[in-house]
Predict the structure.
Amino acid sequence: MTDETIRLGMTNDMAGAGKTPYGSVTRAMTSYFAWLNEQGGACGRQIELHVEDDEYSAEKALAGTTKLVAEDGVLAMVGGVGTEAHMPVGTYLNDPNGDGDMTDGVPDLFVSTGWSGWFDTVKFPWTVGFIPGFTLDGAVLGVYAKEQLAGKKVGVLFRDDDFGKEYMAGVAGALGGTDKIAAESYVSDEVDVAVQVGQLKDAGVEVLVLAATPEVVATSIRSAAGLGWAPQMMVGYTIPPSTMAARVGGGTSTADLEAGFQALDGMVSTEYLLSPIEDESDDVMQEHRRVMQSYQGPQVSTLSVYGQALAETVVEALNRSCESLNRVGLMAAVESMNDFSPSVMLPGIRVSLSDTDHKAIESLQPVAIRATGEVQRTGDVISLESTSAPSGE
């Protein structure tokens, strides 16, 4: 950092070698910062986002982060992606010297992973989450089922790892305990879940929550259809509707997506950002599109909108720390944020933090996916406080 610049760091799967589309998030952030710099930047300084390609690999994410911190001297790391990829990174940033003294950590801001462990402010005092926690997402789906689908038996198909177990805990917490639901799990490398789907059907499940990868969501839908079973299906925000439609329909052609959305018709999900489709005519989305097009950003999508939301939140934190623009001052500024709403976030969804609460987003909006590809918001925003989610969340 200099008197003229603020240097931030980020690693991501930029070239897609890790088979993810997440590089679009970083490109959207870079575009937003380029636009903002023309308006004067933050604290009278230009924002520089230094990026290393980590190929969605924990080893490369750690190597890139170490370089950005030790050699490039970034003020903070932002937007780390993926629980497994970020695990060694988070450990390093909270204790760079590995000596057990965490007072000299590096801000690990607004990570893109919903694992509840990041919210432990004792173990990870320098890490701040951004996306809603997996437990919260499961709990919101559970609350929706309890309130909007009252009396129907709920089942959960979940991946047998931290991701799936946290969704399971959220649903169970909202419904009053694991004895209130039927549950089946699958191992992480499993795709064929026909047996589990059949068991859930036989258990009399009428509402099926899928805490699974896009591939398993697709096979679950096909398996249920093959059994002549049509439960109300629910899935969290982590899988965009277009991704699910492509998996279910078998590709990304217009015909494939149309077939996929037909199969998804009525599925309930959650969201917290404005939609590039439903909110296309909104002034905020039109400006987002203009910025992405004018500053070499990615194609407008859910990921580009997410990237701007992340960038706006970073800028809010920087502007709160202008009088003490160092790592300690920046963390204090982050922990002072209250009821901040990025322009591209849905009404009623706000960022609030404190020194004991590092969960940025703690509310979600239930939505219904339609055969047309549209997403219809249904009911009110559901907050963490109203879900009875486990205390770890």
Remarks:
- The first helix runs from residue 23 to 38.
